[in-house]
From TrEMBL:
Species of provenance: Pseudomonas soli
PANTHER family assigned: CARNITINE MONOOXYGENASE REDUCTASE SUBUNIT, NADH OXIDOREDUCTASE HCR
Family per record: Belongs to the PDR/VanB family. CntB subfamily.
Signal sequence residues: none
Positions bound to [2Fe-2S] cluster: 273, 278, 281, 311
Function, in words: Converts carnitine to trimethylamine and malic semialdehyde.
Residue stretches making up the 2Fe-2S ferredoxin-type domain: 238-324
Protein name: Carnitine monooxygenase reductase subunit
Gene3D superfamilies linked: 3.10.20.30, Nucleotide-binding domain of ferredoxin-NADP reductase (FNR) module, Translation factors
Pathway(s) served: Amine and polyamine metabolism; carnitine metabolism
Enzyme class: oxidoreductase
Length: 324
């Protein structure tokens, strides 16, 4: 059930403007000790406290070398419609600032059974692949990285890739220069043991999933990650019953179950990310079925309808009874 995280303090030791919209932050443990081990594809939850008392909590991929635990690095894109977290990181966080982060968790690991790793990144979606590339340096499994972005000035960490050991395995696609990524051609040429990984904007993820399916690539060979709440703004209202108290709540269109519970103060639910990736708000389903929009549960767990993430998932039925 609900995942538990250790939270600890880190100090910002470096801030770099990677593109007009993306900053790279280097974090070291505030007590000077080594950071927890992680693998490529891992993320941490970053908690931020504003001077006015507002608290933000976002998930960010670790992009540094998993073999070096004296510091972590994360890349943060300033979102146009920021809920507060990315704006805080860009406008309030500087060298010397202290943040609270979680121990790492990995929902986007490289598959050990793959005969080839094909990595597809869009914009800020490059970050988890940077850590994975470190893991691939010494391995025998072939790999390739396809990195798409809008214009040369938006190619975050392009210089690192061009000058590093992965230059020969990396291809860049720049929209403004009319260098487009041909997903159909890429998928058509894949061997049966190759695995696809995609991270970036939702249209890119959807296109990779659809193109892979059209090419006959099994779903188990397609892996994706996106840190953004996936619950749609539309959808009929439904009733949620909190079984322990008998409280009934109406969850309106455009509202999450978590928001309805918090508004009514009917129960206390911990949720670190509010994006369906941390697992802390996982709650057992006693009656009804959920429409799952999280990235934490596996396809098998979603089909079993035993639990759901209250921060993003909604009800498939008109009435949902939860173990709260």
């Amino acid at each position: 059930m609900a995942k538990q995280y250790e939270m600890f303090k880190v100090r910002v030791t470096g801030v770099e403007q990677a593109t007009p919209q993306i900053k790279r932050f280097t974090l070291a443990r505030a007590d000077g000790g080594p950071l927890p081990a992680f693998s490529g594809g891992s993320h941490v939850i970053v908690q931020m406290q504003s001077p006015c008392g507002s608290q933000f909590s976002n998930a960010y991929s670790l992009m540094s070398d998993p073999r070096q635990l004296h510091s972590y690095q994360i890349g943060v894109r300033l979102e146009e419609q920021s809920k507060g977290g990315s704006a805080f990181m860009h406008n309030q966080v500087a060298v010397g600032s202290e943040l609270t982060i979680s121990t790492p968790n990995n929902l986007f690991a490289l598959d050990a059974d793959a005969g080839r790793h094909v990595l597809i990144a869009g914009g800020i979606g490059i970050t988890p692949f940077l850590a994975q590339l470190h893991e691939l340096e010494d391995g025998a499994t072939p790999y390739e990285l396809h990195y798409a972005f809008r214009a040369p000035e938006h190619g975050a960490f392009q210089g690192d890739l061009e000058q590093g050991p992965h230059a020969g395995n990396t291809r860049f696609y720049i929209d403004s220069l009319d260098r487009k990524l041909d997903l159909a051609a890429l998928c058509a040429g894949l061997a049966d043991d190759a695995h696809l990984y995609v991270c970036g904007p939702k249209p890119l993820i959807d296109a990779v999933i659809a193109t892979a399916a059209a090419a006959g690539i099994a779903e188990s060979r397609v892996h994706w990650e996106q840190f953004a709440a996936a619950a749609p703004a539309t959808g009929a209202a439904f009733t949620v019953v909190l079984a322990r108290s008998g409280t009934e709540l109406q969850v309106e269109e455009g509202m999450t179950i978590l928001q309805a519970i918090e508004k009514s103060k009917a129960a206390k639910v911990e949720c670190l990310c509010r994006e369906g990736v941390c697992g802390t708000c996982e709650t057992a389903i006693l009656e009804g079925e959920a429409e799952h929009f999280d990235q934490y549960l596996s396809d098998e767990e979603k089909a079993a309808q035993q639990s759901m993430m209250l921060c993003v998932s909604r009800a498939r039925s008109a009435r949902l009874v939860l173990d709260l």
